[in-house]
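so ive been stuck on this for like two days lol. basically i have the seq below and the ligand is pyridoxal-5'-phosphate, smiles is in there too. i just want the complex predicted, nothing fancy, no docking runs or whatever. if the output looks off dont worry ill sanity check it later, just need somthing to start from for the group meeting slides
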Amino acid sequence: MDRGEELYREDSEDRGLYAALSSYSKNGCYPYHMPGHKRSALAGDMARYFDIDITEIDGFDDLHQAEGILRDAMRFANELYGAEETFYLVNGSTCGVLASIMTAAERGAELLVARNCHRSVYHAAILQELTLRYCYPPILEEYGICDGVSAEDVGRLLEQYPDCRAVVVTSPTYEGIVSDIRAIAEQVHARGRILIVDEAHGAHLALDENAPEGAVAGGADLIIHSLHKTLPSMTQTALLHVQGERVDRRKLRAYLRMLQTGSPSYVLMAGMDSCMRYMRRHGRERFAFLRRQYDLFCEKMETCRYIRVGRITDLSPQKHFLSGWDIGKLTIFVRHPRVNGRRLYDMLREDYRLQMEMAAGDYVLAMMTVMDDEESWQRLADALVQIDDRIEKESAGEETEVLPSNSVQPSGQAWTETEAVMSIAQAFEAERTAVPLAEAEGRTAADFVNLYPPGVPLLVPGELISGRALAQIDAFLRMGLRVQGVTSDGRAETVSCVRDGRFFH
Ligand SMILES: Cc1ncc(COP(=O)(O)O)c(C=O)c1O
């Protein structure tokens, strides 16, 4: 008997991850979250990929020098998206973001990034020892979440920091806010710089004729897509598109080779190919279905008093920088003194077996994709209407202030602008010490402090820790939200600081 079989038998009572995953998949808990395939039978043959887990044997090409079936598969994806060149990524958007930034900004260069970028952008800054300049997207007051990135701000900041080699923008955001990439690209290209769009959450936009314009059509130079987030594709699968003359493609290929495994999974690559083929064949009809269900869902939600879905049509007519709101991201706001986003999230999971993608201060995020059927929409709408009724009944006779529908409580995304006193890479390398939050004001952060999900940084290594930043971190902790980078030493909550960092006093 080989060791694998032996282990299997020894461990038959509790077969670890596999057993946990397979029993979870049977427990009836419906996924309103990633990955986009939703464990749905609609995905057809995708469940059978174990059979095809091979390596680069004769006739099966080499991802890092594709000249055969993998080149053809990548061309297929490329035609679907209409970019000039498309690469498969088997290490998620993470490696696409790293490779794009390392290609566009040489070691020690400056980079302009939207502050709400994913941590992979910050990791690239460590690896490449970059100096980051920030663009802070305004907050949509109605919802307390980030607006799109303003093209004017990008232009102004590029004038202020003319040495920035490239600009990085996240669009759509985790909450589905889509920036006007076309306008941003104009500002960036007018100054001869490269625009990188982290479109990890928007792989579906270009495939849905009614969705806001995607970054490939908008003219960005490098565009990164997580297929696994919003399309029927397996975790880790992603695409990188490149177009135009500004990007050094030799360097890009070299970085992709460095940052990706030398043994890319054919299961994942076959999955990407199937996803592309599925979307070409069924995309139009599935997106039309999604849109119908979305409209019905929003109609049902209109009866609610305390719960409502964030919609672009509800935004007040002040100037906004978003060019659209992805209907696959349901930001479900709750406005009641005793029910916050975390409580709503728990109620949906515990009482209705509906697992949301995330909870924030006053909303939960549900992800809907082309893999969701009528029942999945219905279950969520019914649960929310019932919860709204419960809130109403439980509040009967209570003096509860129902906030006007256009002013939700400030959410987790209000910016505290920060001051860097050393580079991210320097702080990352420096000796560090854990400092209680109450004593951290004036110290220099040695690590990231992120509100998670989505992982937007409240503090970046090398930044001075202000009283405002600490107050914000404290408020998030008290709301029961996950703040990465704050740990407990048994007596107090601490953050990691540079040992001899600068002090105010
Ligand atoms: C905006 C954004 N970019 C990049 C990533 C990384 O994507 P992946 O998990 O495919 O590596 C994420 C992941 O959550 C993300 O939210």
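Residues 1-14, 402-413 have pLDDT under 50 and may be disordered. The two ends are 68 Å apart (CA to CA).
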